[in-house]
């Protein structure tokens, strides 16, 4: 086989990014290059470009190699696939990262890999790349390493010292599907790896007896990713799994990636159109759990099928299913209840509470503060607005759902 | 009319100084014209800035921060809006603290638009490498922001790219960095930026991370508006990528599944460990099998099976209820607060940890998530019954002379008796397999008891453990 050029390797090994939803580069320690090295990080990350599939590019997201000894049915790089294979040298990954970074195209590196020879060997190479960037080149940008779940805890501990974020993918929302579709992976080792990262982060926060702070460990936390639509799990199952993961491992994010057909697909999976709207609704529901005080079960219970309503957003669906709690008196309601009004975001509610201290809040004020009143109307009372019978009207859902479409006759 | 000229750079500071003087004389806003470089000269001439008055002028930090951002907006009215707000804030201290106020709303929107433009500058500036004769590498970029944000947007680059020389040219002016500070110059025509091989590599990356099966062009355009496209190397590929997407998806569909390469089954056969369902013959084998236990549904949410620890040949076995949060994360029993209390009490009872095998009736953590915490839940009867398989194996291989059951769940798992614990505490009952079981409190109960009752229960636990030590001496 002729030696591939860097360009050819990049084309093959950037393929992973196609199916990977996570790309965040926010929330790590604040640092910059004024005292040497290159790069800066901290605060909110920057998306440097967007692809026509609507996902942002914040990090150079590549595989170290797409050779893999595992056979996960949903993955294009599984051992039984006939995809073209390539492998970057660690120096090539470092060079690409730094040169793209200097041209202001990326915030840093998101490195993942197929598993070659053994999990430890693979993880060791990834750690070596992160070490070269940090130590040899003084790189202050963002590094996200996708941890290989079966790798030794020592390597994960080293990875946590160089990386801003570590992630371990749960891949599928239910253990049974993972055992079936990814027979070399084991749900219990995946969760144990997440527990190790959590414990590593907590240990790094304890000061020693002398008051010295231990080195930071994955300061931007850990995240995970689930593939949606490759198995039969309902949205309620998915959200329950997420709630367990958030509480158990203090994850920063769970990413939901709608299962896309892959070239050279395994016969075990259908070549379906990716359920993009379902993915979107799951992100909205996830948001409700993290910032609005909703339980996974509350959101999942809004529809008897256990799946989210695709036509309307989950907060509206919950409000329609729990109309007894509405309308809310905007002048008196506590923050927790205001957060449950469809059309009110967290920022709107914060502004609203500040405005309430200055006097009564009226309809036009709410509009100015960013409330989506077309949505909120049936659920609030104001000095100059009462919904009357609207809250309990039978046709309320129809006001929000997109108009019905004529089915094709052919 | 008073005409206040504002310079091209350091405009905000100039406005601030002038506004302070004007406000100190309480000059009303309608008597002031703020003149940018591109403001046409006043037809009727204008008065110069008067001397400062003797009123005091105050502004909150919030207002100054907001004003600094609004100053970078392209709206020609921004200066007079800010001055109007400043004058009003002198007589009304709470002015601009109400988010429902129309003036605050307008200023907030201007500031937001500026912040967004600055953010997009940080995102979409693309450096090209320039020839350099010194030790530092040199880069240049051309960028067309929506607002005059050059001064507000460039300090970010000085922090990020401190080890290289760079210049960012915009229609508003040019920022140049050579290691010390940033120097700002008047606008110059767009510089000739040399071709850069890394831009070609970047295009390769951009084209290959696009998934043709998912298209969301609205999402792309809302975050990467077209007005920025002309200076980005990657955006010129987008029309072709979109046009080719349906063909690629169809080709994928037509190709369907292929036969796996011949080596694949050999590799996976080596990796896939068949589940071992044979009856374990040693304690270690039982532990290995238990690590993959799926006998009940607790395994789906718990992290891992928490197997017993201690001395396998010890004469004493101590059985708790189920792992808690800490035990679940670490994979070891009795490491959380209740476990620490147990270990302390064992030491007080002269029962060293190496004289006992410590384990739980149920090997997986049971909980309900509550935000960022996991609330412990007592295992149900079916959980105990499923897990008794492992407890029985542990008992068979460790063959304890005496077992201590901590709490009701452990007592039920060992004896099958679900009666209330209080009358049974301190007594010895036979286990399923006939061995003696000494029943006592679970240390977590002692942690939950009110302070007037906890010491007595702790003394009872200590006495029971002391008795267990004596019985197995």
UniProtKB/TrEMBL annotation, chain A:
It holds the Pfam family Radical_SAM. Residues 58-285 form the Elp3/MiaA/NifB-like radical SAM core domain. InterPro entries: Aldolase_TIM, DNA_rSAM_put, Elp3/MiaA/NifB-like_rSAM, Endo/Exo/Phosphatase_dom_1, rSAM, rSAM_sf, RuvA_2-like. SUPFAM superfamilies: Radical SAM enzymes, RuvA domain 2-like. NCBIfam families: rSAM_link_UDG. SMART domains: Elp3. Its cofactor is [4Fe-4S] cluster. The keyword Iron-sulfur applies. GO terms for molecular function: catalytic activity; iron-sulfur cluster binding; metal ion binding. Keywords: Iron, Iron-sulfur, Metal-binding, S-adenosyl-L-methionine. It comes from the Bacteria. Gene3D superfamilies: Aldolase class I. This is Putative DNA modification/repair radical SAM protein. It comes from Paracoccus liaowanqingii.
UniProtKB/TrEMBL annotation, chain B:
InterPro entries: DNA_repair_put, DUF4130, UDG_Type-4/5, Ura-DNA_glyco_family4, Uracil-DNA_glycosylase-like, Uracil-DNA_glycosylase-like_sf. SUPFAM superfamilies: Uracil-DNA glycosylase-like. GO terms for biological process: DNA repair. Residues 307-466 form the Uracil-DNA glycosylase-like domain. It comes from the Bacteria. Pfam families: DUF4130 (PF13566), UDG (PF03167). This is Type-4 uracil-DNA glycosylase. Keywords: 4Fe-4S, DNA damage, DNA repair, Hydrolase, Iron, Iron-sulfur, Metal-binding. Belongs to the uracil-DNA glycosylase (UDG) superfamily. Type 4 (UDGa) family. One of its GO terms (molecular function) is deaminated base DNA N-glycosylase activity.
């Amino acid at each position: 086989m002729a030696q591939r050029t860097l360009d050819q390797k990049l084309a093959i090994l950037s393929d992973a990014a196609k199916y990977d939803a996570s790309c965040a580069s926010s929330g790590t320690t604040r640092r910059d290059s004024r005292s040497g090295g290159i790069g800066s990080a901290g605060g909110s990350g920057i998306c440097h470009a967007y692809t026509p599939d609507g996902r942002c590019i914040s990090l150079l997201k590549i595989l170290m190699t797409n050779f893999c000894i595992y056979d996960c049915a949903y993955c294009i790089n599984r051992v039984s696939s006939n995809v073209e294979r390539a492998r970057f040298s660690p120096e090539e990954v470092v060079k690409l990262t730094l040169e793209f970074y200097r041209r202001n195209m990326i915030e840093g590196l998101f490195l993942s890999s197929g598993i070659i020879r053994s999990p430890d060997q693979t993880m060791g190479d990834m750690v070596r790349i992160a070490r070269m960037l940090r130590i040899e080149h003084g790189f202050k940008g963002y590094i996200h390493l996708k941890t290989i779940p079966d790798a030794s805890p020592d390597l994960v501990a080293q990875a946590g010292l160089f990386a801003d974020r570590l992630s371990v993918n749960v891949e599928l929302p239910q253990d049974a599907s993972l055992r079936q579709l990814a027979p070399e992976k084991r749900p219990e080792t995946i969760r144990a790896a997440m527990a190790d990262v959590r414990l590593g982060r907590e240990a790094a926060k304890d000061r020693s007896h002398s008051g010295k702070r231990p080195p930071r460990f994955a300061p931007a936390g850990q995240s995970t990713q689930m593939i949606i639509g490759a198995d039969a799990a309902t949205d309620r199952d998915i959200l329950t799994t997420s709630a367990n993961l958030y509480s158990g491992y203090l994850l920063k994010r769970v990413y939901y990636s709608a299962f896309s057909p892959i070239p050279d697909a395994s016969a075990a999976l259908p070549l379906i159109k990716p359920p993009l709207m379902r993915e979107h609704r799951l992100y909205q529901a996830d948001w409700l759990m993290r910032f609005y005080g909703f339980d996974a079960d509350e959101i999942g219970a809004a529809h008897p099928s256990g799946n989210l309503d695709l036509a309307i957003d989950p907060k509206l669906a919950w409000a329609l299913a729990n109309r007894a709690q509405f309308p809310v008196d905007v002048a008196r309601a506590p923050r927790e209840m205001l957060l449950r009004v469809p059309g009110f975001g967290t920022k709107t509610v914060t502004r609203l509470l500040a405005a309430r201290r200055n006097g009564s809040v009226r309809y036009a004020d709410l509009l100015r503060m960013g409330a989506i009143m077309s949505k909120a109307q049936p659920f609030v009372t104001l000095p100059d607005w009462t919904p009357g019978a609207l809250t309990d009207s039978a046709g309320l859902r129809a006001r929000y759902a997109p108009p019905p479409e004529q089915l094709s006759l052919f | 009319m008073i005409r206040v000229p504002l310079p091209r750079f350091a405009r905000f500071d100039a406005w601030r100084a002038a506004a302070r003087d004007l406000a100190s004389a309480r000059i009303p806003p309608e008597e002031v014209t703020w003149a940018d470089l591109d403001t046409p000269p006043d037809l009727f001439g204008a008065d110069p800035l008067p001397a400062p008055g003797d009123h005091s002028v105050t502004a909150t930090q919030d207002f100054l921060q907001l004003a600094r951002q609004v100053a970078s907006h392209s709206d020609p009215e921004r200066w007079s809006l800010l001055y109007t707000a400043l004058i009003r804030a002198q007589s009304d201290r709470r002015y601009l603290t109400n988010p429902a106020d129309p003036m605050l709303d307008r200023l907030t929107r201007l500031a937001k638009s500026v912040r967004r433009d600055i953010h997009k500058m940080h995102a979409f500036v693309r450096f090209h490498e320039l020839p350099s004769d010194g030790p530092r590498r040199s880069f240049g970029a051309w960028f067309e922001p929506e607002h005059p944000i050059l001064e507000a947007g460039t300090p970010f680059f000085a922090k990020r790219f401190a080890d290289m020389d760079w210049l960012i040219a915009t229609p508003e002016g040019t920022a140049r960095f050579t290691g010390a500070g940033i120097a700002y110059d008047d606008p110059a025509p767009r510089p000739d930026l040399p071709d850069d091989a890394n831009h070609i590599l970047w295009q390769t990356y951009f084209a290959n991370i696009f998934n043709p099966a998912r298209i969301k062009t609205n999402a792309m355009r809302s975050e990467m508006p077209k007005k920025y496209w002309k200076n980005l190397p990657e955006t010129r590929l987008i029309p072709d990528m979109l046009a080719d997407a349906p063909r690629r998806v169809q080709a994928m569909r037509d190709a369907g599944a292929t036969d796996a390469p011949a080596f694949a089954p050999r590799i996976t056969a080596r990796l896939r460990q068949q589940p071992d369902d044979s009856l374990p013959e040693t304690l270690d084998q039982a532990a290995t099998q238990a690590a993959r236990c799926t006998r009940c549904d607790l395994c789906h949410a718990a992290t891992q099976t928490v197997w017993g620890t201690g001395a396998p040949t010890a004469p004493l076995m101590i059985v708790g209820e189920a792992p808690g949060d800490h035990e679940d994360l670490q994979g070891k029993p009795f490491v959380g607060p209740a476990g620490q209390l147990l270990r302390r009490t064992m030491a007080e009872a002269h029962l060293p940890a190496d004289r006992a095998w410590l384990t739980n009736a149920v090997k997986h953590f049971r909980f309900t998530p509550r935000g960022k915490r996991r609330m412990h839940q007592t295992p149900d009867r079916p959980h105990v019954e499923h897990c008794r398989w492992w407890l029985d194996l542990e008992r068979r291989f460790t063959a304890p002379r005496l077992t201590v059951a901590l709490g009701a769940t452990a007592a039920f798992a060992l004896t099958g008796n679900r009666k209330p614990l209080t009358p049974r505490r301190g007594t010895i009952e036979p286990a399923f397999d006939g061995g003696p079981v000494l029943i006592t409190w679970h240390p977590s109960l002692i942690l939950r008891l009110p302070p007037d009752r906890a010491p007595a229960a702790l003394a009872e636990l200590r006495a029971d453990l002391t008795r267990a030590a004596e019985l197995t001496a």
